[in-house]
Amino acid sequence: MELSNNICEYANALARDCDIDSTCVFIADKTTKATKIYHLGNFGVDQEVLDRYYRTHICDVDPFTDTSLFESMDGARFHVTNDPALERSRSRAGDYFQFVSQHSIDVVGASTMKLQPRLYLMIGAHRNPYRKRASLPVERLNFGMDVLQAKIASNLLSSLLSGGKGYRTLLNVISTEAAPVDAKVASLSARETEVARLVCEGKQNKEIAWIASLSECTVENHLRRIYQKLGIHNRAALVARMNGVLN
To answer: Which domain holds residue 18?
Structure first.
């Protein structure tokens, strides 16, 4: 997906206004053990550095996408690099800070928006550490990042709705006619519902165990209870039942 001209113009104007040398926009998918990165926009960052950030797995230890911090947050949050809220994440991010230092990048902060569990929209802001300048206008940058996040999220939604499937899905979600409640599905516990959702996303037991911080044995026990409650016998039937195909 390409960002609209309006978003690119705003990102460049924000960088000039806050005396930022470069910004980059990407989605970090941390639903698997190895982080996946989807670049949406790059404003002044060396492409080779971005490729190396992903290729050498620095993205796995980026403190601005630390699941232990951002999974408990809603909406977009901007953090400067020395924000006390990042202290716990910083202790695990030695390779990240060594990487940006080696490439002469002063990461002044980043805005992180949780799109869904373990899926983050990220906007990083950087300065050249060898240039002398005034102190960072944190409040102005914070506000600008919030506006930029909203613009990009709106752009993502528009792109999703441009396809027939995305549009039909939205209509189903906002339909005023309530869908009939499956009492058996509703009887699942919160943890069982989470496991069922991950199965529907195509995750295997090992992946579910890692994402949900469970043992594989516990995942298997949850699945047995789910099958028993729903009166089904396999993953395919579970997916169909959760999607309302199988009554």
So the answer is: 5-161
